[in-house]
Amino acid sequence: MTRHLARAAVAFVVWWAVLLAIYLVLISSVTAAEVVVGAVVAAGAALVAVVASHAFAPASTVPRLRWRHTVWLPYDMLAETAMIAAFVVRYIVRGGSVGGSFAEVTMTAERPAHRPSHGPAPDQADALRAYGVLLLSLTPAGYVADDRAEQEPTSGGGVVVRVHRIGRTGRFARLVEQ
Length: 178
What we know:
The protein has 178 residues and is mainly α. It is built from 6 helices and 3 strands, in the order H-H-H-H-E-H-E-E-H. The chain folds into 2 domains: 2-55, no CATH class; 67-177, no CATH class. The two termini are 36 Å apart. The relative contact order is 0.14.
């Protein structure tokens, strides 16, 4: 309990300081009355921010994207943009279709300790599905066509997303799918 209270206090102070600083930067003249008004309003807004963040805190965990994976994202974005540009030029010059393919990707999450023999809880499955849709849609040559929201999680504790890709799968997408 004290750890949660300490985190809430630190979050409150950080919110308060940032909001007060923004207020003081945005006002035209800084007087003592303006500082007091800004401090009181920032304290109220910081309190609302801390209470809201605890009230709406996600009750689930999803796999964390390791920072080494994000190194490949800019490269893949440039490479896939160039690949799509080449497809467009080839289509304009030669005609025909660009094509593409669908793939089903199963994303898995850690099983909670209180549900060792089952897949993720419904809120975890939703969070995992949203995580997969976001990460697998970041690069230009792929998008999530169907997130299978109506399905239950797989027996292995994962959710299935259907991805459409043009050309090869970039390294970032391959790392996310692992």
